Backbone:
């Protein structure tokens, strides 16, 4: 049995199986996370501290359209099956985007469901997540990468009812620089542009009716987790941004879930250094749409 400190993982994602009383932990688990991809695994536990596994849930065959950058798997239950959203670097075009896989069980095996990536073919995109709007329509929310646009964006695109493909064109919800807390940087590959990162969007319906979005960026080169909010509760916004990030200790790409006891939990990876990244769990409390770390006692 493994403990959290034994598991090298980025972009942790928890699926709570309440019938079993178990947690399923997915994430980016390749040891060389920036290179060749081997697939995705799951760890299974009952207390967010101890885990069995890893158990393979996806291994690509030779015909699969990617063999590099297998990132940020999320597993969502939808219409009787489980759908895995994950980022891949495409062999033919060299572009990065999110595709959708499908399985009848949480342990897979997951098989390709979408025809390649669902994000635009000519965009560098990553970290797609599923959101069901108030009318019951499925959307993918994802990042348009800073390496292509400089000021990284959070975008959304409608999905077909069976999640097999996109419908229409993507819309831009906001750019990273619209929030007060991220800081810009220059990069030797792109010396003429000022850059802001957007990573790992995750949507959460707050108790006060607001729609919250977790997303990650950098503050003075330190990875951080921030929150934006649609006070209308609609994906289309308008979006407002908290002045200060939720987590600033070199960690991010988080998601929220309620544990077996109904407590609100944040999981993210920290530190943001390979191979040191580990899953972190932080209990939160929610008040009028505001999230903060729960203090014992």
Residues:
């Amino acid at each position: 049995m493994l403990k959290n400190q034994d598991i090298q993982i980025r972009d942790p994602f928890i699926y709570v199986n309440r019938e079993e009383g178990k947690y399923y932990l997915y994430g980016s688990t390749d040891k060389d996370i920036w290179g060749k991809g081997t697939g995705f695994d799951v760890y299974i536990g009952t207390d967010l501290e101890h885990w069995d596994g890893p158990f393979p849930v996806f291994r690509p065959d030779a015909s699969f359209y990617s063999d590099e950058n297998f990132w940020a798997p999320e597993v969502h239950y939808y219409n009787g099956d489980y759908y895995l959203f994950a980022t891949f670097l495409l062999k033919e075009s060299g572009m990065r985007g999110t595709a959708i896989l499908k399985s009848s069980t949480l342990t897979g095996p997951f098989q390709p469901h979408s025809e390649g990536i669902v994000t635009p073919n000519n965009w560098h995109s990553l970290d797609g997540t599923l959101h069901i709007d108030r009318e019951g329509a499925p959307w993918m929310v994802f990042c348009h990468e800073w390496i292509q646009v400089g000021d990284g964006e959070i975008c959304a695109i409608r999905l077909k009812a069976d999640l097999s493909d996109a419908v229409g064109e993507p819309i831009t919800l906001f750019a990273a620089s619209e929030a007060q807390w991220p800081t810009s940087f220059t990069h030797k590959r792109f010396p003429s542009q000022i850059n802001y990162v957007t990573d790992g969007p995750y949507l959460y319906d707050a108790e006060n009716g607001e729609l919250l979005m977790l997303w990650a960026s950098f503050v003075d080169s330190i990875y951080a987790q921030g929150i934006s909010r649609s006070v209308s509760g609609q994906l289309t916004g308008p979006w407002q941004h908290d002045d200060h990030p939720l987590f600033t200790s070199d960690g991010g790409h988080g998601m929220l879930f309620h544990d077996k006891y109904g407590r609100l939990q944040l999981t993210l990876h920290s530190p943001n250094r390979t191979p040191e990244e580990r899953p972190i769990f932080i209990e939160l409390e929610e008040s009028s749409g505001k999230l903060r770390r729960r203090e014992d006692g």
